[in-house]
Amino acid sequence: MRQAGRSLPEYFPIRGEGTILDAISHPDRAAEITLQPVRRYGVDAAILFSDIVTPVWASGFGIDITPGLGPECERPFTSADDLSRLRPLDPSTDLWFQAETIKTLVAELDVPLIGFAGAPFTLAAYLVEGRPSRDHAKVKSLMISQPDLWHQLCDRLAGMAVDTLTAQVEAGASVVQLFDSWAGALHPDHYRAYVRPHSERILAAMADLGVPTIHFGINTSELLDQFAEAGADVVGVDWRTSLVTARQRTGDRVALQGNLDPALILAPWDSVAAEVRRVLADNNGHPGHIFNLGHGVLPQTNPETLERVVALVHEEGNADGPSIGAPAGV
Q1: Which secondary structure element, helix H or strand E, spans residue 155, and what is its range?
Q2: Would you say 3 and 297 are in contact if contact means Cβ atoms under 8 Å apart?
Q3: Residue 134 burial class via C-beta count within 10 angstroms: exposed 0-12, middle 13-18, buried 19 and up
Q4: Confidence band of 327 (pLDDT split at 50, 70, 90)
Q5: Catalytic residue (one of 2, 29, 156, 247)
Q6: How far does CA 231 lie from the centroid of its chain?
Q7: What is the C-alpha separation between 149 and 142, in angstroms, rounded?
Q8: I need a surface site. Which of 41, 111, 164, 226 has the fewest CB within 10 A?
Q9: What is the fold, at CATH topology level, of the domain defined by 4-325?
C-alpha cells in the first residue's frame, strides 16, 4: 500500500535531497525506488513511485510537498478565479517523466505494475485547505455553500485523474488505483451528492480501457457500499473495519484489499504473525482478497518484518485456496 520502499535503508540514498516530487520527476530514480521493495519483499505487484498531487504540481497550480508535513499550497483555492490555475493536463509534456518511468519498469518487472491517481475530493481538500487538515472545515464549507463552484473544481480534478491514469495505462501499467484518502471525513449523503459522481466518471473511463481498478479511502466504513457501487473491481479496506463487515456492506460485488494495521508491524514477530493470521482468518477463504496493509508502510518499519509478513501470506494465504491473493505492494 503506497511506497513500501520508504522503510528501506536503500531508499534514502537514491531518494536524494529535496522533496519527493524531485525524485518522482527523474525516471531512473523513480523506477529504481519502485523496484526496491519488489526485490526485497517478493511481493506480487509493484506500485509506481509517485504521489497523488503530481498532476496538480505538474500543471503549475502551485503545490509542493513539505517534508514532514505533506502537500502545501502557497495560494489555496478560494474562488472561481482559481479555476484558471487548474489548466487541462497534457500528460505527454506535463507528465513525460511518469511515462518514461513506467516504460522502464514494465521492461524489468515480472509482476504487474499498479498506477494510481488521487480522487477529486482528496485533491480538493489539499487545494482548498492549503495543507493537511484534521477537520477539513474549509473544503466542506465550500462544498455545501457553493455547490456549482465545487462541481466545477471536481470536474477539473476528475479530468486530470482520467488523463493521468490513461497515460499510465498507455505506458504499460496493468492496474490502477484511485486514492480518495480523506473521503471518510464525509457524511454518506454528502459523499453521494458531491463526491461520488466524479469518482464514478474516473472509474468508468478506466473500465473503458479494460484495466482492473482499485478504490481506496481511509476510515470509509460507512461509505463502503457506495465505493462498491462506484465502479471499481476492488475496494480497499483500512484496519478499522473487518473484512467480514466489509463484505456485508459491499454485497460481494467487489474484491477486497486489506487490511493489516501498519502500526502493528512494529510489534515483536509473534504478535505480528498472529495479526496476519487474523486477517487471513477474517477473509475465511473468500476468493476475492488481496492481502495488504490498511494504509501506508510506516517509515520506521523493520524491513525484515515485512519480508516475513510476505512469506507468511504466501505460505498460509495460498494454502486456503488458489485465489487468495498475496500482498500487492504491501
Answers
A1: helix 147-171
A2: yes
A3: exposed
A4: very low
A5: 2
A6: 16
A7: 8
A8: 111
A9: TIM Barrel (3.20.20)
Q: What is the mean pLDDT of the chain?
A: 92
Secondary structure of residue 82 in the 3-state scheme: helix
**Nearest 10 degrees: CA dihedral of 52, 180, 143, 207?**
90
The answer to whether residue 51 is catalytic is yes
Cα separation, 202 vs 150, whole angstroms:
17
Its pTM stands at 0.93
Report how far Cα 217 is from the mean position of its chain's Cα atoms.
8
Q: Which of 121, 117, 123, 281 lies closest to 214 in space, CA to CA?
A: 117
41 catalytic, yes or no? no
Q: How confident is the model over 58-117, as pLDDT tens digits?
A: 999 999 998 878 999 999 999 999 999 999 999 999 999 999 999 999 999 999 999 999
Backbone angles phi, psi at 234, to 5 degrees: -130, 140
DSSP string, 298-309: PTT--HHHHHHH
Asked about 191 being catalytic, the answer comes back as no
pLDDT 10s digits, 190-224: 999 999 999 999 999 999 999 999 999 999 999 99
On the question of pLDDT at 326 being above 90, the answer is: no
Catalytic residue among 11, 29, 41, 51: 51
- How far is Cα 103 from Cα 24, in angstroms, rounded to an integer? 14
Q: Above pLDDT 70, what percent of the chain?
A: 95
User: Has residue 169 got a pLDDT over 80?
Assistant: yes
Q: Which residue has the cell 449523503?
A: 189
Check if 192 is active-site. no
| Annotated catalytic residue within 11, 41, 126, 194 | 126
Residue whose cell numbers read 451528492: 193
| CA-only gyration radius of the chain, Å | 19
